[in-house]
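TICKET: design request
STATUS: open
ATTACHED STRUCTURE:
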């Protein structure tokens, strides 16, 4: 099977070191298999997505040396269907659901968001870094908002199917969502991609890197004189590699680090997150 991977940035904030780590892993994985790599701008949330950010993200990816073979249509231009997927309408708040007061799954309401009626039982899949997993999905994610617009859990699966993506490589924070996505593929009667969840970078405050950690944005590092090699010297050890150059020929998923790591405020060092119990 010919390997097809993807880079899928969300244009709501500039790319940071955590994004570079995840996208670097995706690039290495696809290139190590002589596969193709797609770029897909995930601008589903039109309230937050911005075209100038998307242009800056493309520039940052190219600066890092993460070239892609094709850019596919962004999410904002696509349509999404619920055909073949068991769903129910739910207008309950998050607090009501957490308190166990939601009965929408049984009553089949006519208002609210469309939620995935996740089938009961265990789901099995293999992560190329973490190994075999047996999990029981515990949530019914939103697939379509009350206004009819597609939500991310639906869009990402349908997009990967229509784009022919055969492997998903992303940050470890999304490992917990994989079982539900596998269940969605199964409901559609489609083969799942392979999975690889890399390490997760946190800021010094112990929170996942985001635009609030502005000093670790690639734009900020470039302004301070960083070159791509310095980024890769910092990050490649987490992917089981050494040196300032991307070397797809030496990439081995089993050598990718697990768990969470802290990057200092200036992006100078990465250390294990001592509070982490791993993923």
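STATUS: resolved
RESOLUTION: sequence designed for all positions
ATTACHED SEQUENCE:
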């Amino acid at each position: 099977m010919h390997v097809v991977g993807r880079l899928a940035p969300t244009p709501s904030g500039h790319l940071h070191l955590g994004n570079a780590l995840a996208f670097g892993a995706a690039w290495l994985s696809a290139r190590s298999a002589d596969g193709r790599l797609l770029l897909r701008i995930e601008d589903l949330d039109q309230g937050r997505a911005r075209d100038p950010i998307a242009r800056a993200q493309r520039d940052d990816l190219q600066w890092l040396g993460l070239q892609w073979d094709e850019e596919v249509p962004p999410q904002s231009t696509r349509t999404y269907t619920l055909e073949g997927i068991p769903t129910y309408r739910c207008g309950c708040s998050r607090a009501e659901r957490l308190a166990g007061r939601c009965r929408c799954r049984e009553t089949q309401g006519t208002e609210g968001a469309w939620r995935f009626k996740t089938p009961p039982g265990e789901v099995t899949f293999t992560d190329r870094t973490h190994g075999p997993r047996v999990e029981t999905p515990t949530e019914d994610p939103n697939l379509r908002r009350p206004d009819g617009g597609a939500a991310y859990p639906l869009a990402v699966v349908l997009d990967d199917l229509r784009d022919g993506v055969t492997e998903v490589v992303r940050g470890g924070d999304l490992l917990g969502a994989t079982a539900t996505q596998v269940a969605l593929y199964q409901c559609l009667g489609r083969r799942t991609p392979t999975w690889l969840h890399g390490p997760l970078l946190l800021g010094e405050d112990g929170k996942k890197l985001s635009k609030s950690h502005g000093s670790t944005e690639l734009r900020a590092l470039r302004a301070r004189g960083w070159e791509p090699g310095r980024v890769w010297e910092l990050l490649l050890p987490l992917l089981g590699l050494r040196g300032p150059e991307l070397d797809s020929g030496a990439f081995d998923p089993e050598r990718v680090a697990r768990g969470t790591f802290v990057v200092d405020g200036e992006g100078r060092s990465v250390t294990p997150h001592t509070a982490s119990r791993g993923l």
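CLOSING REMARK: The mean pLDDT is 93. The chain is about 25% helix and 20% strand.
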